[in-house]
Write a structure and sequence with these properties.
Blueprint (H helix, E strand, L loop, with lengths): L1 H8 L21 H17 L5 H22 L4 H22 L1 H9 L4 H29 L6 H7 L4 H28 L5 H15 L6 H18 L3 H20 L4
Helix pairs in contact: 3-4, 3-8, 4-8, 6-10, 6-11, 8-9, 8-11, 9-10, 10-11
Length: 259
């Protein structure tokens, strides 16, 4: 009897039949197996390409609004009024997509960024501005391309500097970057390589503007913005570059410098 009691007093070790881990008191399921299954599931999710459909849908939605704007202009509507309406509509569209992908967007907006990326953005904006001015001047002299003085048209329509800067510099810098280097860049990045994402997002950025004469410098600008986004992991340097580029274009147009 004493021997039987002594044997009963010895704790019996239990082990998981699947992984062999020592069973702990209070376990309902093996915690080791649960952690392993969770890790495998996460790896599978990261390895599984995500459809680029949301990025393409955003692009074609914005392209559609631009086409409507062009048709409205051809139909006799005021170019300035169309620009204002398109700015509002496109901002709402991008904002909706940004809310859907808010986790990626929030991370790209709050990422700590070295000052060197902002300095690089300022320098690159000068490069793209000079490239735009030079290429458009070459096209003007060779094929008679006529530029559309967007800024001057707004001023002549009694829009002041704050409204012109908001419509031509701030809105594109913020919402085009949120759309292209934010939503589109992030979605495509789950199924394409870094280089492919930079090139495809730049190509979409170029064609969205529907200005064939501006395609060369828009493509280069899109590539540089994509590189900034990729290297800095932030949207802010690209927004600064985009804003400064457009601001220089407006100032140059207004004061007849280079263009």
């Amino acid at each position: 009897m004493a021997m039987a009691q002594a044997v009963a007093a010895i704790p019996i070790s239990r082990f998981c039949n699947r992984c062999g881990a020592a069973w702990q008191e209070g376990w309902g399921d093996c915690h080791n197996c649960t952690r392993h299954a969770t890790a495998q599931s996460l790896q599978l999710q990261l390895a599984t390409p995500i459809s680029p459909a949301p990025a393409i849908a955003l692009y074609f939605t914005l392209l559609g609004t631009n086409l409507i704007g062009i048709l409205s202009s051809v139909g006799g509507s005021s170019t300035e009024s169309i620009l204002v309406v398109l700015s509002i509509v496109d901002s709402i569209i991008v904002a909706v997509w940004a809310i859907v992908y808010r986790q990626d967007i929030f991370k790209a907006l709050t990422q700590r960024v070295s000052m060197r990326w902002f300095i690089a953005a300022a320098g690159l904006s000068i490069v793209t501005f000079l490239l735009a001015s030079g290429s458009l001047e070459v096209l003007r002299r060779t094929v008679g391309l006529q530029r559309i003085p967007i800024g001057d048209n707004l001023f002549h329509a009694s829009y002041g500097w704050p409204a012109v800067i908001a419509l031509t510099c701030i809105q594109p810098a913020v919402f085009e970057e949120l759309g292209f280097r934010g939503v589109i860049f992030g979605v495509l990045g789950r199924s394409l390589s870094r280089g492919e994402v930079i090139f495809v997002s730049a190509l979409l950025f170029m064609t969205l503007h529907l200005a064939v004469g501006a395609f060369p410098h828009l493509l280069v600008m899109g590539l540089l913005l994509g590189v900034l986004r990729d290297r800095s992991r932030s949207l802010l340097p690209g927004m600064l570059m985009h804003f400064l580029h457009n601001l220089m274009c407006i100032l140059s147009e207004r004061f007849h410098i280079l263009v």
